[in-house]
């Protein structure tokens, strides 16, 4: 089974058609060649159907955005009519994974979202109603709840989503907050909370990445709803231009926690030149430029996705049993530090290490250092093999006097299997 890998801000309308007006299938190929298995179709219905057709031919799935979904949010008396029309347009297509409903809703929208999710489940039970949540650095005003835990609990209880999706952007730069007043209150809140962790230092890491994923994982375990993580790629506002090690760090830390899907923010570089939006966000360095050029992040992520697809497909068939850390993280809450065994591994020696333990003897070791290699060692009861992402096979690992020694690249991870 393919591990779902997707993105935000996909191919723009300007590039989904060629200059002669024909559909640009080469853009679909470019998405597939980067290792994505789940596309966005966020155009008019006719174009969305062309994307669905092209994705199906290439073995990919599609999440559809449609204006009638947004109308269903705002016009309750016509909600079922609008949603029935959306299902009629797309529901029978074999490439459809689900319908994009809304991004980062306030709790005041949960009742409406619950009704939309229930209606879609009646009209089209085979496909997902997709909603993405705020990160834990959102303000109570943004959340509509006093705490993040309250927000998660109310969301899962009322809306009952098929997947818990959230974003947390960790890597800041020394961008001072510019004084800005937005006409749109929601945009003002996003701007204020986003710059909340910025400082005068050249590069800083926002506290709370692990607190956030612990909060999400705990809610997932309580409710039985799987979760996914949206990670940062594009440079904008206070967020820096990420290295390969930093992107790998985001991906593998998320997978160590049991994320069943990964999304990247963003594929296409957002924004329009000389607009109010770009004046303060300064969007740059996505995977594809505004002009359609392939940027360095595209090639980095294509390499990462090949490994992610191989490892993720294995781990998505397992259950996450625990996540343990070596090395203190004083600004993070809820994390469990290793004391003794971590599932089938014992006597782990190292630092800045995350250990994700899964059923059937699978353990993912992830390097929390995105700038340096990381040496570590462990003991285990049973035969140890290490997964080779290139060959897709497990290779027996030899010990030295019962100790297994390994080295991780910057922000990287390795999957081992221990058979008793």
Description:
The chain has 420 residues and is an alpha/beta fold. The chain folds into two domains: 5-315, Glycosidases (TIM Barrel, Alpha-Beta Barrel), CATH 3.20.20; 320-419, Immunoglobulin-like. 33% of the residues lie in helices and 24% in strands. The protein contains 13 helices and 19 strands. Strands 1-10-9-6-5-4-3-2 form an eight-stranded parallel beta sheet. Strands 11-13-14-19-16-17 form a six-stranded antiparallel beta sheet, covered by helices on one side. A three-stranded antiparallel beta sheet has the order 12-15-18, with no helix packed on it. Helix 8 (148-159) packs parallel to helix 10. The chain is globular and about 70 Å long.
Give structural attributes:
420 residues, alpha/beta, TIM Barrel, Immunoglobulin-like, 2 domains, 8-stranded parallel beta sheet, 6-stranded antiparallel beta sheet, 13 helices, 19 strands, globular
How many β-strand runs? 19
- Report the CATH topology name of the largest domain: TIM Barrel
Q: Can you list the strand order of the major beta sheet? A: 1-10-9-6-5-4-3-2
Q: Which CATH class of the largest domain is shown?
A: Alpha Beta
Our estimate of the beta-strand percent is 15-25%
Q: What is the CATH architecture annotation of the largest domain? A: Alpha-Beta Barrel
How large, in whole angstroms, is the Cα Rg? 22 Å
CATH superfamily of the largest domain: Glycosidases
Net shape: globular
Overall residue-averaged pLDDT value: 93
Q: Helix count? A: 13
Distance between the termini: 26 Å
Work out the helicity level: 25-40%
The chain-level structural class is: alpha/beta
The largest pleated sheet is described as: 8 strands, parallel
Low-confidence stretches: none
Q: Count the domains.
A: 2
């Amino acid at each position: 089974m393919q591990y779902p890998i997707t993105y935000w801000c996909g191919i723009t309308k300007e590039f989904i058609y060629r200059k002669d007006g024909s559909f640009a299938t080469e853009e679909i190929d470019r998405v597939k060649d980067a290792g994505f298995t789940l596309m966005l179709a966020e155009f008019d219905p006719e174009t969305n159907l062309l994307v669905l057709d092209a994705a199906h031919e290439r073995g990919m799935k599609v999440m559809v955005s449609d204006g009638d979904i947004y109308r269903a949010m705002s016009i309750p008396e016509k909600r079922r009519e609008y949603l029935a029309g959306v299902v009629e347009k797309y529901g029978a297509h074999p490439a459809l994974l689900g319908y994009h409903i809304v991004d980062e809703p306030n709790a005041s929208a949960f009742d409406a979202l619950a009704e939309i999710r229930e209606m879609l489940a009646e009209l089209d039970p085979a496909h997902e109603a997709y909603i993405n949540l705020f990160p834990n650095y959102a303000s109570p005003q943004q959340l509509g709840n006093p705490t993040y835990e309250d927000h998660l609990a109310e969301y899962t209880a009322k809306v009952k989503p098929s997947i818990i999706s959230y974003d947390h952007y960790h890597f800041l730069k020394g961008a001072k907050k510019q004084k800005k007043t937005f006409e749109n209150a929601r945009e003002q809140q996003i701007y204020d909370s986003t710059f909340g962790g910025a400082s005068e230092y050249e590069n800083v890491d926002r506290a709370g990445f692990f607190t956030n994923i612990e909060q999400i994982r705990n809610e997932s375990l309580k409710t039985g709803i799987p979760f996914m993580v949206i990670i940062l790629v594009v440079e904008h506002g206070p967020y820096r231009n990420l290295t390969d090690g930093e992107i790998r760090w985001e991906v593998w830390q998320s997978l160590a926690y049991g994320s069943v899907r990964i999304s990247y923010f963003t594929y296409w570089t957002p924004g329009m030149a000389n607009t109010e939006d770009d004046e303060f966000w300064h969007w740059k360095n996505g995977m594809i430029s505004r002009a359609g050029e392939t940027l360095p992040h595209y090639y980095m992520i294509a390499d990462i996705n090949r490994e992610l697809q191989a490892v993720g497909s294995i781990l998505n068939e397992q259950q996450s049993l625990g996540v343990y850390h070596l090395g203190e993280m004083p600004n993070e809450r809820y994390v469990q530090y290793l004391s003794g065994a971590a599932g089938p591994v014992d006597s782990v020696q190292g630092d800045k290490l995350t250990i994700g333990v899964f059923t059937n003897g699978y353990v993912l070791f992830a390097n929390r250092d995105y700038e340096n290699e990381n040496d570590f060692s462990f003991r285990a009861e049973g035969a140890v093999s290490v997964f080779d992402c290139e060959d897709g096979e497990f290779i027996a690992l030899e010990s030295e006097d019962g100790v297994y020694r390994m080295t991780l690249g910057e922000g990287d991870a390795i999957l081992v299997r221990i058979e008793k």
